[in-house]
Write a structure and sequence with these properties.
heterodimer, A: alpha+beta, 4-stranded mixed sheet, 10 strands, 17% strand, globular, B: alpha/beta, Dimethylsulfoxide Reductase, domain 2, Rossmann fold, 4 domains, 6-stranded mixed barrel, 5-stranded parallel sheet, 15% strand
């Protein structure tokens, strides 16, 4: 089913019923625990991505300019960029591009420096305090290599999630948008060298919570990659360089607390 | 379902009303989306709240919970006054032309024959005029003022846009929009379908809501066609299979009637339940009732059932005449102290039954309870529940570990009547065994005790033929299934149009058409006769993917009852000459000597053949779709009544506030607060995608609990503002019967209604939580709900009652 050339996972939000089969399938396949949560007045739970939540349906109540109410569902998770800030910034080589063009993660190499989070325009990688490692979706790399769909795609009952060769999925996305009309648009192919996760959105990108309109790699990452990263060779190790960089750019801030202390103000509905 | 899940893709307009299909039938919902993508179908969601289903439909129309008949009655009025009905279909395939007795009447909300003391109708006037041959008189012009069509028109003339809007809280604009779009399917080449679920059945008027929709579907010619029908979306708990096999108190397997005490002989029972028709064109298929009944008795009692002893009819338990035995009656009697022991198998009534406080109190009056389940739940542990002192509870509780569904072989029926065989995927943990095996072991022990000690009325127990164990003495699902299908009990030659076939004793019966009333066949459930062929092939295991009609019937995938018919009443998809009304979707076609396509509702020619042809609705005594339906307890036409507990003191349509035929429970714990200022908000309850039923299985699952961790109440922004309730804060929801604490989910998805000129707010809660686990997840929502149910089925009213919401 999967060739070894570039693939794209298509998330068609107009077919999503927010059943969250994908959210559970991801946890099941990747052996991520379900944690005790609270209901904070929303179906969205956990309230944000976290070390144990690599994909999440965001629920958003939205009223458009015509006064029409819509309940928007967006499956959030790694976009698997071609120009991937996380790969650029990773000092240890833990984050890398796979044979499918997706971004894989070699857990053993991760030093938990958290730079990938700062470098990611979508704020995807999350830190696991217990293991001192970063975590994120790897598009079920081992499943792809075994000719299987990612767990989320496999679980999707309505066809909102699909995966296939890059060109085929791009065509499918644009065909779908043509049928939908209105503000429907394809999101993902026009920036960061083209992402390997594409959205068909029913609304303009700026309508969606936590979705940057024009994502780009932070300037600091470019600075790091082009000017400072070569120095790491001289410095003789990623650990020191990573810590140094973190201190220079951000100070001692932890990028994300664990999921259960998630940001209440930014929860969706 | 009259149709089946895949068939939803063949529809042009899908009305989802009384169902939250996307959340509760997430897999089936893909066929609804496919209809949109392939046919450009319109998807309409009419529901008290905006749900994940609404989000995927073309639009959502909110209506006040409990006013569905008013909404649909308005649609009937619209169809009739705007001539949107499919006249050819209505004239030929429904009882629209039948002349109703002049003694029949309808006045101020009541039909003729009402006895207010008994809250019951005498139906003697709900009958048709008959000619000298005993055939109903008809006026094919539909002009006779006493014909069904004219009476229907008159009845629903009161359901004007203004009136319906004022009752339901739906704007006139929205009403017209839905009526116009849906009734546009009243033409030969369009199909409209309706999907409902517990949003309709959980009302005191539930059965009549479904009947109102059936009337609409008959008027529009949407019954019996691909992409049409009235479709109950039944759930994963094998609801279809359990009703087919008589989980309800009022039926025997295959929907045969439960015998009451007054029908004390087989002859009386068959006389009462075998319908008669003098119309030669009516197949009146239920004239075979005696064959199904005797074959059932033979499956129960084997060789002990002989003609001389009425095939053991007297050994069947009988219910008291006029007495119902629903779940609510069960707990009512238990609360009175009249029930001593209880088996609770795979269910959690201390969470899921209405009026939880009464249910839990009733459980304390039991001497013993036996539970069979895969987990403990609030029912089995009621004796240590909140506010209960274990020292004061006398009930002895036994909990037997049961196998989970994937740990056993057997059949499972989906909503489309497809009975699919499944195999064991894993061994059961430790001592767990299938509930079938538990039942057999217990029955064997009971039998041994009766054999040893005698006791009262031992014959039914001792004569029971349960040879369902394998060589190792274990429960054998295949043996049970074969007995359900049925056997030839002696060598039989069957003559089918001159072709004679010999079936040997012990062969499985290949169709219910071969069942006999003389004791020569057995069948545990006549609708399943045909699930095996005569050679013993289990058709439920079939997995053929061929689709010869292109309509998604997949005739070689599993077995659909009856007789592998995928869409029932399918002869109505053709005109009276057997030509498909819709050439794009040829479900069935008469070729001059036979039907091709789906398995037809009987082999007879189409009804234009006056000599051999039959009407399409073969299970109805008159052979035609019933616009006038005297089988219902509250009237042959549906009528809007308010819920037992609602915001109004007067029914805007009549002087009859509530359904006149519902039973009112009168214990000291059955309080009602209609239009009471202390409980001003309409409340409805439901499940969520992430949990299943009472949550007794899913709350233990960390990934599911993480997504929906605790009880919440959905409240509109306006009401929340009035009450000063913040999103995510704790609140108390109270009814006159009880209260629950939970999280407030303040949302734009709930909007207030304008009802009879006043603002009415509505709130809603899921019913998936209980005190046992998680400890801080909240207790049963059913502390709020009333003990009252549908007048025909006693399905409880979980969907419309009154509450207050208090900030904590």
């Amino acid at each position: 089913m999967m060739s070894t050339s570039e693939v794209i996972k298509l998330i068609d939000t107009t077919r999503c019923t927010a059943c969250r089969g994908c959210q559970v399938a991801c946890k099941q396949w990747n052996e991520l625990p379900g944690l005790r949560t609270k209901n904070r007045g929303s179906y969205q739970n956990p309230p944000d991505l976290g070390w144990n939540t690599w994909t999440l349906i965001r629920f958003q109540e939205y009223v458009n300019e015509k006064g029409t109410f819509k309940w928007l569902f967006r499956k959030d998770g790694c976009m698997h960029c071609t120009d991937a800030g996380c790969v650029k910034v990773c000092p240890s080589g833990a984050l890398y591009h796979t044979e499918y063009g997706t971004v894989g993660i070699k857990k053993d190499l991760c030093i938990g420096c958290k730079e990938c989070t700062a470098a990611c325009p979508f704020e995807i990688p999350r830190y696991n305090r217990r293991t001192d490692k970063m975590t994120k979706c790897d598009l079920c790399l081992t499943r792809l290599q075994a000719n299987q769909q990612p767990a989320c795609v496999k679980s999707c009952p309505t066809g909102a999630l699909s995966i296939g060769p890059k060109d085929k999925m791009l065509t499918a996305a644009y065909d779908r948008v043509k049928v939908l009309g209105g503000d429907a648009n394809v999101y993902g192919d026009k920036f960061l060298g083209g992402t390997h996760v594409l959205y068909v959105l029913s609304e303009k990108p700026e309508v969606y919570d936590k979705l940057p309109k024009s994502p780009s790699i932070p300037l600091s990452v470019t600075v790091w990659k082009d000017w400072l990263k070569p120095l790491t060779w001289i410095a003789g190790g990623g650990v020191i360089a990573g810590s140094l960089l973190h201190y220079i750019l951000h100070g001692p801030k932890r990028p994300y607390p664990e999921v259960d202390q998630g940001d209440h103000a930014e929860r969706g509905k | 379902m009259t149709n089946h899940y895949i068939d939803l893709k063949n529809s042009d307009v899908i009305l989802i009303m009384g169902s939250n299909a996307a959340e509760h039938h997430p897999i089936a919902f893909k066929w609804i989306l496919r209809a949109k993508e392939q046919n450009g179908a319109r998807l309409i969601h009419v529901d008290p709240r905006y749900t994940r289903t609404s989000a995927r439909c073309d639009y959502h129309v909110p209506l006040r919970s409990g006013t569905d008949i008013a909404f649909l009655g308005g649609m009937i009025h619209y169809i009739l006054t705007n001539h949107k009905y499919f006249r050819d279909y209505v004239v030929n395939y429904t009882n629209a032309s039948f002349i109703v007795s002049k003694d029949f009447s309808f006045n101020d909300g009541l039909f003729s024959g009402y006895d207010p003391a008994k809250r019951k109708y005498n139906k003697d006037t709900w009958v048709f005029e008959k000619d000298d041959k005993g055939v109903p008189k008809r006026d094919m012009t539909l002009n006779d003022p006493q014909c069904v069509f004219q009476l229907l028109k008159k009845h629903f003339s009161r359901y004007t846009l203004d009136k319906v809007s004022s009752i339901t809280g739906v704007s006139k604009e929205n009403l017209t929009k839905v009526y116009a779009e849906y009734s546009a399917t009243g033409v030969p080449d369009k199909a409209g379908t309706e999907c409902y679920a517990l949003g309709w059945t959980h009302h005191t008027t539930g059965s009549q809501i479904i009947r109102t929709m059936s009337i609409i579907q008959l008027l529009l010619g949407n019954m019996g066609i691909a992409g049409g029908g009235v479709n109950a979306l039944r759930g994963e708990p094998n609801v279809q299979g359990s009703t087919d096999h008589a989980i309800l108190y009022n039926i025997l397997p295959g929907y045969l009637k439960m015998p009451p005490a007054s029908l004390d002989t087989l002859e009386k029972y068959l006389e009462k339940n075998t319908p008669k028709s003098n119309d030669p064109q009516s197949a009146n298929y239920y004239q075979n009732y005696p064959k199904f009944t005797v074959s059932f008795l033979k499956s129960m009692f084997g060789d002990k059932a002989v003609k001389e002893n009425d095939f053991g009819y007297s050994w069947l338990p009988k219910v008291d005449d006029g007495v119902a035995y629903s779940l609510m009656h069960l707990f009512d009697k238990m609360y009175e102290g009249k029930v001593k022991g209880l088996f609770v198998v795979g269910t959690d009534p201390a969470v899921s039954s209405p009026n939880t406080a009464k249910v839990r109190k009733a459980l304390e009056k039991l001497d013993w309870m036996v539970g069979e389940n895969i987990f403990d739940n609030e029912t089995y542990s009621f004796w240590k529940g909140p506010g209960v002192d274990p020292k004061k509870v006398k009930t002895e509780v036994f909990l037997l570990p049961a196998s989970a569904t994937m740990e056993k072989e057997g059949s499972q029926s989906n909503s489309g009547r497809w009975v699919q065989w499944k195999y064991k995927a894993a061994e059961s943990p430790e001592d767990a065994i299938p509930v079938g095996e538990i039942t057999i072991k217990i029955m064997a022990a009971v039998k041994a005790l009766y054999a040893k000690e005698g006791g009262a009325c031992p014959a039914p127990i001792l004569n029971l033929k349960w040879d369902y164990t394998d060589a190792k003495g274990r429960y054998d699902a295949l043996k049970v299934s074969k007995q359900i299908n049925g056997y030839f009990l002696k060598d039989t030659v069957v003559d089918d149009k001159g072709v004679k076939t010999l079936y040997k004793k012990g062969q499985t019966v290949p169709t219910f058409g071969m069942l006999q009333a003389d004791g020569s066949t057995s069948s545990g459930n006549w609708i399943m006769a045909g699930s095996f062929d005569a050679k013993g092939l289990n058709k439920m295991t079939l997995r053929g993917k061929d689709d010869p009609t292109g309509l998604g019937l997949y005739p070689n995938w599993s077995y659909a009852w009856p007789l592998n018919r995928r869409i029932i009443y399918n002869r109505a998809s053709c005109d009276i000459n057997g030509k498909p009304y819709n050439p794009k979707r040829r479900l069935l076609e008469w070729t001059g000597d036979k039907w091709v396509g789906d398995v037809p509702d009987g082999p007879w020619p189409p009804m234009a053949d006056k000599a051999k042809g039959k009407y399409p609705f073969i299970m109805k005594p008159d052979g035609l779709g019933a616009l006038f339906g005297p089988g219902m307890v509250e009237g042959p036409f549906p009528e809007h009544y308010e819920p037992l507990e609602g915001p109004l003191t007067k029914n805007p349509l009549s002087g009859q506030l509530i359904n006149p035929a519902i039973e009112i429970f009168k214990s000291d714990m059955d309080k009602v607060a209609n239009a009471d200022a202390k409980f001003p908000y309409v409340c409805t309850t439901y499940s969520c995608t992430e949990h299943w039923c009472s949550g007794a299985l899913t709350r233990w699952q960390a990934w599911l609990l993480e997504m929906q961790p605790e009880l919440y109440v959905e409240i509109g922004e306006k009401l929340a503002q009035e009450k000063g309730i913040q999103n995510g804060s704790r609140v108390k929801v109270q009814s006159v019967r009880g209260q629950v604490e939970c999280v407030a989910m303040v949302t734009k998805r709930f909007q207030p209604f304008t009802v009879e000129g006043k603002t009415v707010h509505q709130v809603g809660l899921p019913f998936n939580y209980g005190w046992l686990f998680p400890k801080d997840g909240g207790d049963s929502t059913n502390f709020l709900t009333p003990t009252v149910g549908d007048a025909n089925t006693f399905c409880p009213e979980y969907k419309a009652f009154m509450v207050n919401v208090v900030k904590l």
